[in-house]
Amino acid sequence: MMDEFVKTVQEMRNAQKEYFKTRDKAILAKSKELERKVDNMLSNLAPNMPNLFQ
User: Disulfide engineering: 15 pairs with which of 31, 50, 51, 53, CB 3.0-4.6 Å?
Assistant: First the structure.
């Protein structure tokens, strides 16, 4: 699970960087999708940790 989490975070950061270089809406959508996936993975890894963005 931790390897998948690290890989997903890396993908998310790469998508975020690419978006800010290009401002491409498709890349923004991918970045947001990955952010949601990371948030879900975090909630599964640390269910008692408060969510700062809700």
Answer: 31
